[in-house]
Amino acid sequence: MDDMQEYDPFDDANGFEDVAEDGDMYTANLNTQEAAAQVDIPAHLLYSEEHVWVDDSVDPVVCGVTAFASEQLGELVFIDFPEIGTHVEVGDELAQLESSKSVSPLISPVAGTVRYVNHEAYDDPSVVDSDPYGEGWLVKIELDEDPELLSADEYAKIVAKAQ
C-alpha cells in the first residue's frame, strides 16, 4: 500500500452524454474515449457529493460507494474498514478503498456511530464493483441527526457535469 499514490479519482472523471429517469433508477450515459457505459443511480437512495450513497429507510442507515465511484476507482483489491463503535462526523474519513489505480478515502456523508461493517466486502472487495448498491454495501451507521444529502436527481446532475 505504501507504493500507491493517494489522489481523488473523480478529478479525472469523463463527461456524460445525458441523464435519463426510468422509474426507480436514473441512468447517466458515460461518454468515454474507450467505450460508452451506463452508470445507474437508484432513486430511493440519498447521495453525497463525494459519491457515497445512503439508504435512510433502515436503522442504522446503510452506506456504500456509488457505481460512478466504483467505475472511477477501478477494481477494488482491499478495504480498510473502521472499527465497530467508531464515531464519525460528516467529512471524516470513514474507510480507505485500495484499487488497482489508487488508495482513496471514503468520506462519511453522515454523523454517527459505526454499528456494522460488511465482512463479505472485506473478504472479497470485488462485490463492491459488481453490486455497489446491494451486496457491496460498506457500513451501517447509527445516525446522530438526519443527514443533509442529495436526491438521486440532484446526484445524477452532478455526475453528468463531472469532467
UniProtKB/TrEMBL annotation:
Keyword Protein biosynthesis annotated: no
Source organism (scientific name): Galliscardovia ingluviei
Function recorded in the entry: The glycine cleavage system catalyzes the degradation of glycine. The H protein shuttles the methylamine group of glycine from the P protein to the T protein.
InterPro entries in the cross-refs: 2-oxoA_DH_lipoyl-BS (IPR003016), Biotin_lipoyl (IPR000089), GCV_H (IPR002930), GCV_H/Fam206 (IPR033753), Single_hybrid_motif (IPR011053)
Cofactor note: Binds 1 lipoyl cofactor covalently.
The entry's keywords: Lipoyl
Protein name (Swiss-Prot/TrEMBL): Glycine cleavage system H protein
Domain Lipoyl-binding: 60-142
Summary of subunit composition and partner proteins: The glycine cleavage system is composed of four proteins: P, T, L and H.
N6-lipoyllysine found at: K101
Pfam families assigned to the protein according to its UniProt record, in alphabetical order: GCV_H
GO-annotated cellular components: cytosol; glycine cleavage complex
Family: Belongs to the GcvH family.
Biological-process GO terms, alphabetical: glycine decarboxylation via glycine cleavage system; protein lipoylation
Cofactor(s) annotated in UniProt: (R)-lipoate
